[in-house]
Amino acid sequence: MAHENLDVIVEDIVKPENLVYRRPSTLIDVDMHYCPGCGHSTVHKIFMEVVEEMGIQHDIIGVAPVGCSVFAYSYMDVDMHQAPHGRACAVATGIKRVLPDKYVFTYQGDGDLAAIGTNESLHAANRGENILTIFINNAVYGMTSGQMAPTTIEGMITTTSPYGRDVKSMGYPLKFAELIAPLPGVAYVTRQSVHTVPNVRKTKKALQRALEYQRLKLGFCLVEIVTNCPSNWKMNPVESNKFVQNTLLQFYPLGDIKVPEVRV
Amino acid sequence: MGEVKLMKGNDALAEAAIRCGCDAYFGYPITPQSEVIEYLSREATKRTGMVVLQAESEIGAINMIYGAAGCGKKAMTTSSSPGISLMQEGLSYMASAELPCVLANINRGGPGLGTIQPAQGDYFQSTKGGGHGDYHLLVLAPYNVQEMADFVKLGFELAFKYRTPVMILADGALGQMMEKVELFPQEPRVHIEYPWATTGKPKNGPRRVITSLHLEPEKMEEINIHLQQKYKKMEEEEVRFQTLNLDDAEYVFTAYGLVSRIALKAMDLGRQRGYKIGWIRPITLFPFPKKVFQEISTRVKGILDVEMNAGQMVEDVRLAIEGKTRVEFYGRMGGVVPTPDEILDAFERLFIKGD
Ligand SMILES: Cc1ncc(C[n+]2csc(CCOP(=O)(O)OP(=O)(O)O)c2C)c(N)n1
Ligand code: SF4
Ligand SMILES: [Mg+2]
Question: Closest residue (by CA) to atom 5 of ligand 2?
C-alpha cells in the first residue's frame, strides 16, 4: 500500500546525518506563545543557534524586559532575568559589572528600549557597557495590543494613532540605532531583519559578531532587527513581511551603521 | 576593641559597606547622603575591588542592584526621599523575585522636593510596602552613627537570610552628624554560589530564572502566600527594640531614630519634674515591635509618640495598643527637629493638665 511505502521512505530519510534543519539544543522544546509568523520566534531560534554554536550556554545571562518577549525565558535555555519595562540595560549593567567575564544580553522591544527605557538604554550605551542589546523593532506596542511606539512611522495606523501617526503632534519616529552610533562607548550598531531567509542568515551573523565583540570587551553592541507584528498590524504573515520590505525598510534601511576596526 | 573613629553617619555607613564585603554599590547623588557615593568612589574599589558606579538615575541604580543581586552578589544603594520614590518599582520587583539587597534612605523633608533637612515623613512608604503590591521591606532604624555602620552588616545578614530587600531608614541629621564609632574589622569579599542566582546555566542542572511575573492567579497567590509567611516569620524572629525605665513607668515616650534620642532627653527632664516616664525605641520598624507595646498597654496611663512627621508610626502603636491606653502624638514636619522641652511641654499639655 502507498502509505506503507511512505513509512519506509520516512524511516530512510529521518537520520541524524540527513538533518538540515533542527531546533538548537539551547532552545527549549515547548510551544511558543508568539503569534503565527511573528519575527520574535525566528530571532529566538537564530540567537539560540548562535549560543549553541559558540558553546556559551553556561556563560551567558539574558535580560528579558516587558513586551511580547517577556517570556523569552520560557524558551531560551540559559539563565535569565526578567526586568521591569524599560530597565533591561540597567539590570544588564548590574549583572555585567559583577560578572564581567560572562556574556550578557538584553532582548528588548522598541517601546521598552526607546520610549520608557530610553534613559537606561542611552546611558548603558554611552558608558560602553560590554553587553549586547537585541532590539526588536516592530514599530508598535505588540504586547499591549497595538498602540503607537516611538518607532511607528509617519502615517502608520495604530490604536493610539487611529488616523495615522501625525508627526506634528505625536513626534517623529525615533532612529535609536543612528542616535547612539556616534557615541564612543558604542562598538557595533547594525540594523537587520528576518523577513526573508537571506536576511535571517545575515541577522544570525550579526548576532554572532556582536558576541565576539563582547568577548573582546569592545563596548556596547546593538543589533536592531526590524520585525513584523502581523496581529496588531492586522495583516497575515506574508502581507506583514511585505510591509516590512516595502514600507518599514524604506524608513529603517538595513546594514551596518557602526563596525569596530577589529576583524572577527 | 575594633578601630575607633570620629565619623559622619554617611561615611560610617559607606565604610561599613566596604568592611562587610559588599560587592557592588550603584547610586545617584542627592543631599543629604551624597557623601556615601563620594566615600565609596574614593575608597572602595582600591581596597576590596568592590564595584562602585554612579548610575544615570535612581531608577537606573535600583535596577543595577536588581541585576547584581540576581547574581547572588551583595549589592547596595543609598538615596534620600525623592530618589527613594523613584526606586519603588524596582523594590517591588525585588521583593517579589525574592532578591536580597541593602538600601538606605537618609530621609529629608517632603513632600515634593521638600527640604534637605532631616525628617521622618517616609515611614509609611518604608514600612507599608512603598511600591505596588503586597510586600514589605525589612526596615532598620539606627539612632546613632554606630548603628549607621552596624546596620549595614546586619542588613546584609537579614537580606540574605530572608532573600528580601532591607532598608536602613535614617534621616539627614544621622547622615550628617559626627560621632565616635567602633568599626568592625574588614571581612573578605566572598563569592557564594546560590542555587537561585543567575551566574550562567549550570552544566548539571536547570537554568535559573529571576522573575516576578506569574500570569496564572493561583500561582501568583501562592507567591503572595509565601511572602506573607516570610513576613510572619520576621515578626516572630527579627523584632528589635530598646526600652528604658519601663518598670515603674506611668507614661511612655516612644520614637524611632534621631527623635528617640531627643525623647530620651525629654524623659530625663520629665523624671526630674517627678513624672514616671519610660521609653521605647523601635529598631525594626517592619517588623514592628507590637508585643512590647501590648505588654505595657494595661499598666501605663498613656503613651506619647513623637515623630518628625504628621503622625505615621503612631498608627502602628495604636494598632498594637488596641485602645487599651491613651496614645497621643506630637510631631514637627518639613525638616523641623523637636526639642526635649517641646516634647515635655506637649506631654504636660496632653496628659497632665488635661488629666
Ligand atoms: C511601567 C509599565 N508601564 C506600562 C506597561 C505596559 N506594557 C507592557 S508591554 C508594553 C509595550 C511593549 O512594546 P515593545 O517594547 O515595543 O515590545 P513588543 O511587545 O512590541 O515586542 C507596555 C506599554 C508595563 N508593563 N509597565
Ligand atoms: S502581538 Fe505582534 S509582536 Fe507580539 S507575538 Fe503577536 S505578532 Fe509578535
Ligand atoms: Mg514593539
Answer: A34
